[in-house]
Structure to design on (520 residues):
């Protein structure tokens, strides 16, 4: 099939809002195309090349437009068309889909619409989506919802594979992960006075070519960092006062980025003192620092983190291939990763995580295997395996980099999973992203008992989280039904420094309501 740069979804029998529910599913098949909800009259649908989107401005070329038409008359079969290709959902098909319990709140018509689009595009593209009709970030929440309702494992598997069309291996993976997470979720429920904290340091030594996060390169922004840290310390003081007033304490604290260890020894020391003196911290605090860039690590910083109570580190190579490191803009060598890891082990018995990214430019199975061979002797406690997700704002996106095929990326995933299970690691959290290669997923692996509590909290949304700093989000969890109230700081550091106080009263009010429920 020639390149599709735009797709129009049309129907005379489904509402626009119902078609909108299938839009992200279409994007999973055509990640670089614009997907538009069109008018039922094809003559009214116009797409100019100036409105198209895609890496490297490829949309400036002549557009190749695909049209998906979805129709259903009354209670009859549902039809989906792509040119000469057509599929139908019969009454028997629809009954099979809808007789399995609905775990979520999505209306039956939207479910059927997504199944029709999935079947049609699987045929058009000669491919399958391992995650079926799911397009959300947190698929493991489905299993937890079924556990809450005491669905047995066999029925869970049936619901995942039939109602959501998830491939059986992915459905079983969700069940495995949910089983590991369940004791943590029960702990969250029992300890209602415990919350998680996230502190953002959105600065890095250099900017990676695949990065679209709001992280600033310190080769130009050192003065900005000082201004930013002043605002962050002010927020720490105010949040600490709120937590103490409401009776909350943090059982996990995650210092993330960017690269927090880009801070100087003096800056880190001041920040750690503010954390210790201002924030109510629970006994047994899980304290994680993303020390992702080995070129930012020194013996003095390791000693400082150890003495501050840090007990989890992330030392993130992303790859152990020298040529790839140069291509993606990492200012370190493979030897630097090995040296930093060995140095970290000398200073403390902290849990060490390492991050990998599958699908980096120029890498295939052989490169991934080579990376794993170099990491195996290190015996990391955790390994987080990301699948490359390119978004606007990244250099690779702007330069038109294309992902490897879904089959190749999945081969990389399978290799990695088999290898790290041999190291004694098991999957414990999973999430998905827009624009992710192969429409696949990111998986965190850990030695049993060494899972990161914060990662489980942020993914499963069963514990309230306060986010401090630019781009950080706060999630206030209603323990009665796990509904969420979200607060988001602005991503730009200047905007954050100028406006962080604006929503504090509402955030405090939302946490006060949760505290009140905990006293009943």
């Amino acid at each position: 099939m020639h390149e599709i740069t735009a797709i129009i979804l049309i129907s005379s029998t489904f509402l626009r809002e119902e078609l909108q529910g299938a839009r992200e599913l279409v994007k999973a098949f055509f990640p670089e195309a614009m997907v538009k909800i069109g008018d039922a009259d094809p003559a009214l649908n116009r797409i100019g090349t100036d409105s198209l989107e895609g890496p490297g401005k490829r949309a400036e070329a002549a557009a190749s437009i695909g049209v998906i038409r979805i129709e259903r008359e009354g209670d009859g079969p549902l039809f989906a068309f792509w040119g000469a290709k057509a599929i139908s959902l019969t009454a028997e098909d629809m009954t099979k889909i809808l007789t399995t319990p609905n775990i979520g709140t999505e209306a039956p018509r939207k479910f059927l619409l997504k199944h029709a689009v999935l079947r049609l595009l699987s045929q058009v593209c000669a491919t399958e989506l391992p995650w079926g009709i799911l397009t959300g970030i947190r698929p493991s929440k489905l299993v937890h919802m079924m556990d809450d309702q005491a669905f047995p494992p066999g029925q869970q598997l049936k619901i995942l594979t039939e109602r959501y069309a998830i491939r059986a291996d992915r459905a079983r993976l969700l069940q495995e992960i949910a089983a590991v997470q369940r004791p943590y979720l029960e702990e969250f429920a029992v300890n209602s006075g415990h919350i998680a904290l996230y502190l953002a340091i959105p600065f890095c030594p250099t900017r990676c070519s695949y990065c679209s996060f709001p992280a600033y390169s310190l080769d130009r922004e050192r003065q900005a960092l000082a201004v930013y840290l002043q605002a962050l310390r002010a927020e720490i003081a105010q949040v600490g006062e709120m937590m103490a007033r409401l009776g909350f304490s943090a059982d996990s604290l995650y210092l993330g980025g960017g690269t927090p260890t880009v801070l100087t020894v003096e800056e880190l020391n001041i920040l750690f003192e503010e954390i210790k003196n201002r924030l109510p911290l629970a006994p047994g605090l899980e304290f994680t620092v993303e020390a992702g860039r080995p070129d930012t690590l020194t013996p003095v910083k390791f000693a400082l983190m150890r003495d501050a109570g840090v007990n989890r580190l992330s030392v993130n190579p992303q790859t152990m291939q020298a040529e790839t490191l140069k291509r993606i803009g990492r200012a370190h060598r493979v030897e630097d990763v090995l040296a930093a890891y060995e140095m970290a082990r000398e200073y403390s018995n902290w849990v060490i995580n390492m991050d990998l990214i599958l699908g980096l430019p120029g890498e295939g199975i052989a490169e991934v295997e080579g990376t794993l061979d170099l990491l195996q002797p290190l015996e990391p406690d955790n390994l987080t395996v990301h699948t490359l997700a390119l978004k606007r704002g990244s250099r690779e996106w702007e330069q038109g980099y294309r992902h490897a095929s879904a089959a190749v990326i999945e081969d990389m995933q399978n290799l990695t999973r088999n290898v790290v299970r041999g190291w004694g690691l098991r999957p414990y959290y999973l999430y998905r992203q827009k624009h992710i290669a192969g429409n696949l997923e990111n998986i965190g692996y850990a030695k049993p008992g060494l899972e990161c509590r914060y990662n489980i909290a942020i993914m499963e949304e069963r514990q309230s989280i306060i986010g401090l700093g630019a781009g950080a989000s706060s999630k206030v969890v209603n323990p009665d039904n796990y509904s969420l109230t979200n607060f988001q700081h602005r991503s730009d550091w200047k905007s954050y420094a100028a406006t962080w106080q604006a929503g504090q009263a509402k955030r405090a009010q939302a946490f006060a309501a949760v505290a009140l429920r905990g006293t009943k």
Notes: The chain has 17 helices and 18 strands.
